[in-house]
Request: fold
Amino acid sequence: MSVPLLRTVILYFAVVAAVRVMGKRQIGELDPSELVITILISDLAAIPMQDLGIPLFAGLVPIAALIILEIFMSYFAMKSRRFRRLINGQPAIIIKKGELDIQKMRQMRLTTDEIIETLRKQGVASVSDVKYGVIEPDGTLSIVLKQPQQPVTAEMLNLTPKDQGLPVVVVSDGKLVQRSLQLLHKEAKEVENQLKNQGYTVADVFLMTLDDCGNVFIQPKEAN
Reply:
């Protein structure tokens, strides 16, 4: 019983390491080559996990080979635009000035229902509201709205809103997050004093976020 468990744990960490090495995108955003490599790695890991007669090394070697192959392919794709297009494909415009490109949809085997559903998920009611719609190499639909349908911005209204940075978690469940303090170039004492001015201690706070513009959010722990 211990041998299958040990093999499973080793293969699990091998696959996790493989995915980490290949990239950090989500499955739905993988390029075709990355998706193929991910599927192959999963299949290769499953074989020695299920069949104890197959040496564990026989499963790890192909996984390592695929990782190396993916790294080299990513390198060549960075250097060569033609190779990148060959492996991953290129964007395709399927909506132009509020009208569907029927010929392009047929080439990509897309239905009107799929396009309309995707537009609804992005909060777009009609194809006529879209100036350009582009199918990206990862299969997602990117849209550029016509000017009357574009969201109102502060610039359009001649407003100057308060500047916002990237909030990072500095206190999590009553504990300071040292890495976040380093990113913000803050000392622990500064955060403690900031909380003290609000009537809290670090132990009282469930979540505190802070950005480089000084914007802060504090959520205290629930009272017992």
